[in-house]
Amino acid sequence: MKHYTDQAAAGQTSLLHQIDWFTTLVPFLCILALCAWFVISPESSTNTISAIRNFLGDEMGSYYLIIGLGVFVCSLYIAFSRFGKIRLGDTDKPLYSGFQWGSMIFTAGLAADILFYSCCEWILYASDPHTAEMGALHDWAATYPLFHWGPIPWGFYLVLSAAFGFMLHVRKRTRQKYSEACRPVLGNKVDGLAGKLIDLIAVFALLAGTATTFSLATPLLAGAISTVTGIPQSTGLTLVILIVVCAIYTFSVYFGMKGVQLSAATCTWLFFGLLAYVFFFGGQTRFIIEEGITALGNLTQNFIGLATWTDSLRTSSFPQTWTIFYWAYWMVWCVAVPFFIGSISKGRTLRQVILGGYVFGLSGTFTSFIIMGNYGLGLQMHGKLDVLSTYAADGNLYHAILDILGQLPLSKAVLVLLVLSMITFYSTSFDSITMVASTYTYKELKSDEEPHRNVKLFWAIFLILLPLALIFSENSMSNLQTVSIIAAFPVGIIMLLIITSFFKDADAYLQEQAHNSKS
């Protein structure tokens, strides 16, 4: 018995020595300090960070637009150039089947937000005067969601997924950190202050983003559950929702990638079941199809113009309010999701990672927006439900969504399916984030190794603590979300370093392969 206890203690000590405490704890303490500032000085903190965000969005907005379009073009170049033939790892057999891989890609990031915004984003655009200036209001209210959740945002994920996958499976680097991906450019500087700064920014952005990710959807979940069960909406109900989500994703991630894979497959089937029901039984099938085709055509025809429009005279500030905001929001999430996609892509070529990622990511995203969004838009345009007037009266998107879904037959059953889909989406997203945060905690970890279960359990519980605390202070939640958007500015610079490093390292690798084949 004593021998077993000594072994366990030795293993625990060894694990503690493997942890990068500086990179793990400093961002956490910074987030706690910010939360304390938000609570103690709500007015001054709000004014300060709002001013910073407005400056970055208004004065530096072109920075985000250039990065967005540049990364998208870069992704296509990687896929169709000689770099696209590089295979991740020394096996021709992919680690996961196409469905398993695709479902994990789609559910790893903002899938729950995609489902939420699919139900209501057209309302926001239809209420914006600029949309009417573009042409037929219903056409552009259906087009902008496809643009803001389309190729450019997914390009952020996929370019970095290729870079991280190359770093993990081809170069077999054991430091699974943002800084390590910059080594080909920065060299040994990544082992010093520069590397620490990069990793601190990355973990800070990760914590700020995940701490506020529930701020959008928990009121909808609470409202749906209240409608079905009759339980009054309250902070207590929201707490229960967060705890349930935490329990589900903690259980799945504790059992490793098999648990994550099962969670992703489950929510994918629930998601498409919900979409199929709305499509076939909502009474707007023809409108959904035709408006979807129109929106896709609009997006294709106007893509470059939408991606480069800066509104230099600020006649509407539409790109500052929407496009730049979304690009920054997706960039913050690039800290976690691309690492996860890169890690599960062993056995695939970079061409397959990028093009396959676009196929699975865009097909799921576009299907959701076309069906859920155009269903509500169809009710509005056919005079069956005046959603815009309701929203104009109270400004509550959650009420509007519940009104829209209430028009479906067996609406309470639909709300149950919606709740299950969103909970499993959030659970799967947090699965991937927990896995990435756990690997980030280690000083070194091989690409085919999983973090210790205790480390995953720590992050699974830790990532839910800030959302639990912040639901008691709505102002703090909003402020922290703004901080996560501000964090996208330095993350963008790091992204450019990673992409440059990838091209340098991948070119050297191909030259090595060519030299070896000749000799």
UniProtKB/TrEMBL annotation:
The keyword Membrane applies. Pfam families: BCCT (PF02028). Its main location: membrane. The keyword Zinc does not apply. The chain crosses the membrane at residues 21-40, 60-80, 101-126, 146-168, 197-217, 237-257, 269-289, 324-341, 353-377, 413-436, 457-473, 485-503. Belongs to the BCCT transporter (TC 2.A.15) family. This is BCCT family transporter. It comes from Ventrimonas faecis.
